[in-house]
Design brief:
The protein has helices spanning about 5-15, 30-110. It is mostly helical. Keywords: Coiled coil.
Length: about 110
């Protein structure tokens, strides 16, 4: 996925974390409902952090994938250049032999 696609997702996840105070796992003596709310809030905050980390990881993987694709393209071009160079180096001696050696052969026969 492209980097621009993750921008809104990252902003949404970051906004979930902004202004949140880490809740305590245990309540402050206010009763059982407060404890369960603290646990849920804590889990939601952790989930938001995990989602943000996953989005960042996806973004990083996308950048790595793009870099690898560019690297593969460069390698293919280099391989093609090497093939062309090898082909030219093979053709040049043959051309030299075809045009130079037959003339020498004709000179010797005369």
């Amino acid at each position: 996925m492209k980097e621009a696609c993750w921008g809104p997702t990252l902003r949404m996840l970051e906004s979930k974390l902004v202004g949140r105070k880490p809740s305590l796992l245990h309540g402050r003596g206010k009763g059982r409902k407060d404890k369960s709310r603290d646990v849920v809030a804590n889990l939601e905050a952790r989930l938001a952090k995990v989602e943000l980390a996953m989005a960042n990881t996806r973004e990083g993987l996308d950048l790595i994938e793009q870099s690898m694709e560019n690297g593969m393209k460069d390698l293919r071009e280099q391989i093609q250049d090497l093939r062309e160079g090898i082909l030219i180096s093979q053709i040049q001696p043959m051309s030299h032999e075809e045009f130079v050696l037959p003339r020498k052969g004709l000179e010797h026969s005369c």
